[in-house]
Every structure is written in C-alpha cells, then in structure tokens.
Amino acid sequence: MNRVKISADGAIGRITLARPEKRNALDRATADELAQALFALSESPVSVVALDAEGPDFCAGADLEALEEMLDADRGAHIEDAKALGHVFHTIRKMEKPVVALVKGRAFAGGAGLATACDIVLAQEDARFAYPEVAIGFVPAMVMTMLRRSVGEKHAFDLVSTGRVLTADEAERIGLVSRVLSAAEFDREARVLLDVLSVAPISAMAATKQLFYKLDNMGFLDGISAGIIANADARATEDFRAGVKRFTGRKKE
Questions:
Q1: Torsion-angle region of residue 31: left (phi > 0), alpha (psi -120 to 50) or beta?
Q2: Does the pLDDT of residue 4 top 70, yes or no?
Q3: What residues are labeled active site?
Q4: Phi/psi zone of residue 9: left (φ > 0), alpha (ψ -120 to 50 degrees), beta?
Q5: Which pLDDT score, from 0 to 100, does residue 252 have?
Q6: Topology, domain 4-198
Q7: Which pTM does this prediction carry?
Q8: CB 100 within 8 A of CB 120
Q9: Which helix (H) or strand (E) holds 185?
C-alpha cells in the first residue's frame, strides 16, 4: 500500500501523505516514498510543490509502533532509519522549486518538523503544532535544525522542552507558520498562493531559494557578496530580460 501519493495539475505538483489510519505517522517506508516523490517532482515540469495529507491530521510524527519494533536493533540500524527522514528534510531544502506545506489538524513532532522544513507553511485555523518527544524520553533531534532558524532560540527551547501545543495563530505569531487561513477559505486561498508561485519565472525562483538558504552559513558581508553575484547572474537570464521589457513597456503605454 502506497504511503504517499503524487500528482500534478499543470505547473502545480502535489505530494499527499496517505496513512490517515495512522494519522500519517512517519516510518522508514513513508520517508523513503516522500524522498522519491520529492525527487520525481524536482525533475518534472512543475514549478511548485504542495505537501498535504489525507484525513483530519497532517502528520502525528514518528510511527511509534515502527520504532517499538526496532527497540532491540543495533545502533547502525537506528542511524540508517533516522537518515531516511533527514534525507527528506535535506531534499526539500536543496530543491530549486518552492515546497508549500498545507497543514490541517495536528502536526506533531516529526510532522511539525516536516511542515517547518517546507519553504512556506499554510495552516488552517484548527491546526495544532507541538514537539512532545521529550515526554517519552525521545529527542526532537533533526527538527530542531529548522525550528531554531524559524522561531529563534527562546521560543524553540520552550517548545522542545515542554512539548506544549500551539494553536495556528500562536504558531504564526512566533514564525513557525507563514499564514493562517480559515477552514472555509483554506483550499481556495492555498490554490491562489500556489498559482502565484507556479507562474513566477523558474530561473528567478530557483536562484532566490538557493541564495535564501545559502545565507544560513554566511556572515553579513559574505551574504551581501553572494547577493551581488546572484543579482548579476539573474540579470543574464531570459526571464529577467523579458520581465524588464514587460514592465518598461507598460510604463510607456
């Protein structure tokens, strides 16, 4: 049974977590299928990727029953299992196309991390976010990399040490969520955003995303220097030339 579904509607690709009976919990097979789907869409003609889920919840985090089956496995097996989800996070980050998480219901633990790994997070007003791993003796290890970048140290440590549940509005306030949408308007407004992203010049979007995350590892002056190069490179693209001519042509009319 496929744990992940993949589809395309014109320039919009879609990856859907399809384990509603498990609240879309992440096991090794699901992580592997997610990575394969992301790679497939990165190589396809789509311009933007939406990540959503079947059922009332986005993702409950790690599949604890699958982890229970591994309790007596050696350390190497646990590392390989963890690498599968780490590969998903890394793939989202290195893709040139924007990835948009569409979150309804609960996004807990690795599920919150999965959403946070995406470039934009749209949350329905009933969405909830939490990192409850410590309560069961676990560590929200990989997801902290994205969480600290998104909300800063104080909010991040509060979340991972207490496991408290955030409402969608609270998550937006601290930077975990990009926008909160009403249940009645969620699908329509999400589609509007996807449409906007899908028609952006591909070369400009790819360069923007690449530089955006490259800045994580740079100081201020290095970031400005990298921006100078990206700026000049963008000017050499046909998308830029056409865009400038469209704009100046409108002003002359």
A1: alpha
A2: yes
A3: 133
A4: beta
A5: 61
A6: 2-enoyl-CoA Hydratase; Chain A, domain 1 (3.90.226)
A7: 0.90
A8: yes
A9: none
Q: Which residue has the tokens 């306030």?
A: 173
Going by C-alpha positions, the residue among 54, 144, 63 that lies closest to residue 104 is 54
Q: Which two tokens stand for residue 84?
A: 């599968």
Q: How many residues does the chain have?
A: 253
Residues contacting residue 185 through CB under 8 Å, at least 6 positions apart: none
Nearest to 161 by CA among 119, 183, 199, 132: 132
Q: How many CB atoms lie within 10 A of CB 27?
A: 22
Give per-residue pLDDT as tens, 188-240.
Answer: 999 999 999 999 999 999 999 999 999 888 887 887 887 788 777 777 788 87
Q: 88-92, 102-106, 114-118, 215-219: which range is least confident on average?
A: 215-219
In three-state secondary structure terms, 75 is helix
Residue 109 clears pLDDT 70, i.e. is over it: yes
Are 87 and 34 in contact by the 8 Å Cβ rule? The answer is no
Q: Where are the domains of the chain?
A: 4-198, 202-252
Task: Check: CB of residue 19 under 8 Å from CB of residue 13.
Answer: no
Q: Which amino acid is at 121?
A: V
Element at 37 (helix H, strand E)? helix 28-42
Of the CA atoms within 13 Å of residue 173, those in its CB half-sphere come to 6
